[in-house]
Design goal:
The protein is 38% helix and 12% strand. The protein is α/β, with parallel strands linked by helices. α5 packs parallel to α6. The protein is globular and about 65 Å long. Bound molecules: glutamine.
């Protein structure tokens, strides 16, 4: 019997594989939860019973010929910037309102092969630009721990559904923190793998040199299992890498005596004191397990936000040029010439934040300013990368808060872009450096809102990251995000 908050990805797959759990029952159970709670959270942009039924049939057929599928019968919900054949993919934007891709993203193909049920498409900030989900053209997602608060962004729907158990896991994308920050604000585990670990084919591009797909789960073990399924070379993404040498990410070891770095520059006035205290406690947990804590400096880390907002917007301005009203999505009727068609379609289709970013990026790339803005940003990016390389010569993992605050009120920061951009102050540098990062739950503040601990490691050391995360989770079970006593109450 399935019960809310009791099932892990691993367990569902195990019981479906050994025949003790029927795929139909798993689908039915989660379908009911989406139908009763999805509206409250505004988490889903697309959910169709008929499609879920055909997913169930597909998986049942697969199970006839294949044994031990890693995600047998596991519902996985997807951020709506992952292309799904035959299902709308809007990116949270009006401009793609009626877009149905003719193909699956590589990660979707991998999930399907692993026996997963593709379980609806999730709300997000428009084109993944935002930290609160308030930039969605379809209204904000609500945080399951407090419906008057944001779930974080841009993968807010992906974090919220896992926190509220409308699915045991989901996928999101992370360009500057969009997996880790919402994971922290919703009290779940969010992993951004090393850049190149997971194929971006079929992920609608935002900042192509920064984007990476990753899982949301309620445990580290489930995160590792999902990564195992998602990771690997894909000929259609030239930045993806062959992981053949890695047998299994989910053979975890939570006992390693790792060296853990603490970055002194991260200690700022912006950091909520309760999160700061939780951080120090987390470091004590590691110390008590025999890990060594080392104070480090990342001298150029202060340039992360300005560097990111030049690189990401420059890439976005190029990537979003394809939405012109001719090939995809919304086409304006208010035009007489081709140029007017482009202009009117884009003006009507894109939201305010997206337009702002396109303008910023186009300016940064414009002739005469290119070197001053884009060129400098590339140089500072390299300096940040080198800071991390030096740090990882001394330590295995760097620990930091994931977000400087817990979930804020809907509307609280929407007119203050600078304060919104600062939500990613701890997460953005990993994308610039291409290294992996994970956010794991590390308790609750006095208001009962979840807090997140971020761990980062050198590129391609995702395994070390997961081992380190597991150690903390094993030692603090019951104090982290979801547990039997403490779970969001949505009834
Ligand atoms: N909040 C950041 C932005 O708006 C990061 C978003 C993301 O990671 N997709 O760009």
């Amino acid at each position: 019997m399935l019960e809310a908050f009791q099932s892990s990805v691993k367990n569902i797959a195990k019981h479906v594989n050994d025949g003790s759990q029927k795929v139909d029952d798993v689908a039915e159970f989660y379908m009911k939860r989406v139908q009763t709670l999805g509206k409250k959270l505004n988490s889903h942009l697309f959910f169709d019973e008929k499609i879920i039924e055909s997913e169930v049939e597909r998986v049942k057929n697969l199970l006839k010929t294949q044994k031990n599928l890693p995600l047998a019968g596991v519902p996985v919900s997807l951020k709506d910037n992952l292309c799904t054949k035959g299902m709308p993919t809007t990116c949270g934007s009006k401009i793609l309102e009626n877009y149905i891709p003719p193909y699956d993203a590589e990660v979707v193909r991998r999930l399907k092969d692993a026996g997963a049920l593709i379980f609806g498409k999730l709300n997000m900030d428009e084109f993944a630009m935002g930290s609160s989900n308030e930039n969605s053209a379809y209204g904000p997602v609500k945080n399951p721990w407090d419906l008057s608060r944001v779930p974080g962004g841009s993968s807010g729907g992906s974090a919220a559904v896992v926190a509220a158990d409308l699915a045991p896991c989901s996928l999101g994308s992370d360009t500057g923190g969009s997996i880790r920050q919402p994971a922290a604000l919703c009290g779940v585990v969010g992993l951004k793998p090393t850049y190149g670990r997971v194929s971006r084919y079929g992920l609608v591009a935002y900042g192509s040199s920064l984007d990476q797909v990753g899982p949301f789960t309620r445990s580290v073990a489930d995160s590792a299992l999902l990564l195992q399924v998602l990771a690997g070379w894909d000929r259609r993404d030239s930045t993806s890498r062959n992981d053949a040498e890695i047998k299994s990410f989910d053979a975890l070891n939570g006992q390693r005596k790792l060296k853990i770095g603490y970055v002194k520059e991260f200690d700022s006035d912006q950091l909520n004191p309760e999160i700061k205290a939780a951080m120090s406690q987390a470091l004590e947990v590691y110390k008590s397990q025999g890990c060594e804590i080392v104070e480090l400096s990342l001298p150029n880390i202060g340039y992360s936000i300005p560097t990111y907002y030049v690189v990401a917007t420059a890439e976005a301005s190029a990537n979003l040029a394809r939405f012109d009203g001719v090939r995809y999505g919304h086409r304006s009727t208010h035009h007489t010439t081709l140029n007017e068609l482009y202009e009117a379609s884009r003006s009507e289709g894109f939201g305010k934040e997206v337009k702002q970013r396109i303008m910023l990026g186009t300016f940064a790339l414009s002739s005469g300013y290119y070197d001053a803005y884009y060129g400098s940003a590339l140089r500072t990016r390299e300096m940040i990368r080198q800071d991390f390389a030096k740090a990882f010569a001394k330590v295995d993992v760097i620990a930091s808060p994931t977000s400087p605050t817990t979930a804020f009120k809907i509307g609280e920061k929407s007119n203050d872009p600078m304060s919104m951009y600062l939500s990613d102050i701890y997460t953005i540098a990993t994308n610039l450096a291409g290294i992996p990062g994970i956010s794991i739950p590390c308790g609750f503040d006095k208001a009962g809102l979840p807090m997140g601990l971020q761990l980062m490691s050198a590129a391609w050391n995702d395994q070390t990251l997961l081992d380190c995360a597991l150690m903390y989770e094993e030692k603090t079970r019951g104090n982290g995000g979801w547990n039997e006593q403490n779970k969001p109450n949505l009834s």
